[in-house]
């Protein structure tokens, strides 16, 4: 059976691939657990200078696997918290605290939980035709993986609220223009530009890079993400939201 998460380390660059292309790389509990394991191993690898997160098969990540979420939500708040949001919080903490720079290389879709996962990285870079958006609101849901905090940190409160409450998608070029992405490139130029960026990062003195990242991470409070998750747990286990999840899963 293929691994749901791939890892390739070449020189100072570690590339982590989400590998459920038939599900548009939606993450389930197996993906969350494997991602956490991979990141933990890289945190202790002094030879790694940058981590790239990408999606196999041409799309980054379409979000969380609602089939699994729905099943846990029907089990009640404890099941949903223990089975989904605790692992998701652990992964968020692991990814945001990694000592080396992290880059989300976004092609295709980065939606809902997929966008939240990308925003846990230090940098988001996109192809011009990539589509990014929170979109929880379009299914009648609220964000639960940190979007209210992570998106506001990148684009400001007003723009973040607009994107979350309208549920609209943005293309790569707009994502770069509003600060959601660092840059966007044409598909045929994306790989070369990414490699140039990675080479620039890995050429710097590792101790200096780690110190800068540690100092800048002090502006981000994971407790605010935990608070968002607590609200999501209560909402997703309520009867009206369970009905929404059931209709979405059957639709």
From TrEMBL:
<dbReference type="Pfam" id="PF00378">
    <property type="entry name" value="ECH_1"/>
</dbReference>
<dbReference type="InterPro" id="IPR001753">
    <property type="entry name" value="Enoyl-CoA_hydra/iso"/>
</dbReference>
<dbReference type="GO" id="GO:0003824">
    <property type="term" value="F:catalytic activity"/>
</dbReference>
<dbReference type="InterPro" id="IPR051683">
    <property type="entry name" value="Enoyl-CoA_Hydratase/Isomerase"/>
</dbReference>
<protein>
    <submittedName>
        <fullName>Enoyl-CoA hydratase/carnithine racemase</fullName>
    </submittedName>
</protein>
<dbReference type="InterPro" id="IPR018376">
    <property type="entry name" value="Enoyl-CoA_hyd/isom_CS"/>
</dbReference>
<comment type="similarity">
    <text>Belongs to the enoyl-CoA hydratase/isomerase family.</text>
</comment>
<dbReference type="InterPro" id="IPR029045">
    <property type="entry name" value="ClpP/crotonase-like_dom_sf"/>
</dbReference>
